[in-house]
Amino acid sequence: MRHKTLWAMTGLVLGGVAWGLWYARQPAAAGYVAAPVKVAVAPVSQQPFTRYLQAIGELEAVEEVSVPAEVGGRIVELPIESGQRVERGQVLVRLNDAPQRGQKVRLQGQVDNALVRLDRLKKLIHSNAVSREALDDAQAQYTTARGALQELMAQIEQRTIRAPFAGTLGIRKVHVGQYVNPGDTLINLIGNQGLYVNFSVPEQAMLHFKTGSPLLIELDALPGQPLTAVVSSVDPFLDRSRTLSLQARLQDPPAAALPRMFARVRLPQTLPENTLSLPETAVTYSAYGEDVYLVQPALDAQSAPTVRRVSVKTGERRDGWVVINQGVAPGDQVVTSGQIKLSDGASIEPMTSTALAADGGTNP
């Protein structure tokens, strides 16, 4: 019984304390006003905007080849270095041709003997000292010997690998003394004649691309260095996925642009036109669509500006900006950073993006 009474008294005391605390806080809560939220704002601006058809492509050298060995053999000379510039016809690799050169001496002797015999018989034929059959046989022997020599000379020439065009060598893949098989790659060679960009577009866009169409090219590896190109070739066939392959020639590509680089291709569709634009960070997304927080001026000197959430319809996005087709007007101020702390009607303290970042409020 005593314990029950003790527990009852304890409960009453705790309840009274809790009620007193709640009651004491009521006046303060009733008079509380939330501090304005620090946000970055920017005006809705009109900017010239060109609409583009876009595609993804890859760079390819106008001249490029993996130089192969035509025949098997041991490398005896390698007068090149990785990355070296070479001229057309310059020797890149020599394979061992000593056995073939020995055969050349023997075959050259056979050719010389056959020619001497043929010349002698030609002089004798006029005096009927030899038969026409003997002369024909001598002619055949000479022709056969000369053909064998020419075949051997071609085999010797195959053992001297030369640059098929002027350009820059890649990294050497072989060494002196190494044995190579027919078809083995010895070194890569990139020509000096420029670069293509290969890309494809869906059939719905094919009518916009013609030979001579100007293009804008952006390389992910070289940001901030826009390039230009001209469509040089259009494939006359669509592939099984109904896409059209095209090739364009880059105009004055920089030395840093290399084959196989990823390229973004853009074809201007319209002349530049003024459109309403905002930084992409100004647009928030929800289940109901896209919105921005529109800044409402303060009602008086004692109050802070507020925000109103409005729905917008966006268009193309480019370089951190988004086209606004509906929902705002030129000159409207919108929140570009700090939206996560906002709700419709919230008071704000407008700041520049730089000032907000310095204040530590960089979250959208």
Automatic annotation (TrEMBL):
Keyword annotations of the record: Coiled coil
Molecular function via GO: efflux transmembrane transporter activity
Signal peptide (residue range): none
Pfam families: Beta-barrel_RND_2, BSH_RND, HH_MFP_RND
Domain CusB-like beta-barrel per the UniProt entry, residue ranges: 197-268
Domain Multidrug resistance protein MdtA-like barrel-sandwich hybrid span(s) in chain numbering: 64-188
GO biological process terms, semicolon-separated: xenobiotic detoxification by transmembrane export across the plasma membrane
Residue ranges of domain Multidrug resistance protein MdtA-like alpha-helical hairpin in the record: 101-158
Keyword Zinc: no
Top-level taxon of origin: Bacteria
Keyword Coiled coil: yes
Coiled coil: 104-155
An example Gene Ontology CC term for this record: extrinsic component of membrane
Similarity section: Belongs to the membrane fusion protein (MFP) (TC 8.A.1) family.
Name of the protein described by the UniProt record: RND transporter
Species for this entry: Pseudomonas weihenstephanensis
